[in-house]
Amino acid sequence: MAIIIKNAAIVNIDSIIKGDIVIRDGVFAQVGGAAEAAAEDQVIQADGLHAFPGLVDMHVHLRDPGQTHKEDIISGCAAAAAGGVTSLACMPNTVPAVDSPETVEYIINKANATGIHVYPAAAITYGLSGSGCCDYEALKKAGAAALSDDGRPVESDEMLLRALQEGKRLGLPVLCHCEDLTQAAGGKVHEGRASELLGVKGMSSSSEYGDIDRTVRLAESVDAPVHICHVSTKESIEIIRQAKARGVKVTCETAPHYFIYTFEKVLGRDADYRMNPPLREEADRLAVIEGLLDGTIDAIATDHAPHSPEEKADFVKAPNGVVGMETSLAATLTFMPEKLTLSDIVRLMSFHPAKIMGIPGGEIREGAPADFALADLNEKWVVDPNQLHGRSKNAVFKGETLTGRVKATFCGGRKIF
Ligand SMILES: [Zn+2]
Ligand SMILES: [Zn+2]
Fold it and tell me: Does 119 lie in the same domain as 27?
């Protein structure tokens, strides 16, 4: 039996064609043209809908094991499916941290039931404590797909160099959260007008770009690839632009809130607009857009970071982070500058992240796994945190009217949303 999607606009990085999609045995058997349906085939009419390669969200916090009141692998994958995400990399700052083969295996086993491709990033240092490098070979053998101490920088040059060299040798991308904690520890919002008006500690732009500069130079010194997480400042983007120009193997991501919002959002003292790095100035927002347009920024990820309403209640005490997997495609479609095409969005949210991670996905092509989402680009909807599928409600786009909605998500040919 085949599944036949009739009459969709099929979006890839180099084309948009109207036609049918045939899925057989979990892979795309035919893309485009008109398909003949046999009696036993399942036919889905997709007139007016666009078919996108499933999103590859390379920066997600599933909070499992250990903090399942915020999210768990099942609820997080439900949120992913609702947002059109079919592959995700989950970060290792769980409890315990993902620093042992057992924890990697726990995640992979639990994720098996969800229908989503879950790729665990293992810790660079034990417990993300900076106190010693993990056994990367054993972690890879258990199924780890990347290395990261996300949530924290790797402060020791020696340990970061070792991770970069071992990552290169083992084919594991190294995903770097860059932050100078001597400047930024305990910061709540962007340092500048936001921290002054609110009377709280700020996180300066230099605490981000200074550490990006260090990280890029270390990678360059050993000719190893490095990926920079969540860039948010204009200086960060310029540093990466120049590094790419001199041939450094650096890639980077940003998140939708950095090209849509500025620090003005936090002035109402709502902790659902607090994340790390923080929402910054208008000049930074425009620089992020420029970076997306000129190819300096390779990927859009969400840094989906669930926290319970109780934890987010107090503006100052609340932990950093916002959820975003269910709104990333819709928000990007709604707020992106016109210069960015649907094919560009596929490149940024699916094709490039898959390439950086070294995993399948990113295209609707014959023979590729049938990971895709059907979206109605004209449907308007209001983001209601109570209607979201994840466990936490700290949705950065709450209350926004978005244009474009995921109507169905398929992963490995199976309908999961
Ligand atoms: Zn981070
Ligand atoms: Zn993160």
Answer: no
User: Is residue 246, in this structure, part of any structural domain at all?
Assistant: yes
Domains in the chain, number: 2
Catalytic residue positions, numbered: 303
Q: Closest-lying ligand to the alpha carbon of 91?
A: 2
Structure tokens at 291: 């970076």
Ligand 1 centroid–CA 335 distance in Å is: 23
Distance 194 CA to ligand 1 centre (A): 20
Q: What are the tokens at 8?
A: 């969709």
Q: How far is the CA of 115 from the centre of ligand 1 (A)?
A: 26
Q: Which of 357, 378, 395 is the last residue of a domain?
A: 357
The per-residue pLDDT for range 22-75, each reduced to its tens digit, is 999 999 999 999 999 999 999 999 999 999 999 999 999 999 999 999 999 999
- 166 with 224, same domain: the answer is yes
Write the CA distances from 45 to 48, 51, 375, 410, integer angstroms: 9, 12, 13, 15
Task: Decide if 219 contacts 225 (C-beta within 8 A).
Answer: yes
Say how many Å lie between the CA of residue 371 and the centre of ligand 1.
Answer: 27
Residues with CB under 5 A from ligand 2 (ion): 150, 303
pLDDT tens digits for range 147-174: 999 999 999 999 999 999 999 999 999 9
Contacts of 20 (CB under 8 A, 6+ apart): 4, 5, 6, 7, 8, 30, 32, 33, 34, 35
Q: Does 44 share its domain with 58?
A: no
Residue 379 belongs to domain with CATH number: 2.30.40.10
90 Cα to the center of ligand 2, angstroms: 9
Model pTM score: 0.98
Domain CATH for 154: 3.20.20.140
Q: Identify which of 215, 252, 230 has the alpha carbon closest to the alpha carbon of residue 356.
A: 252
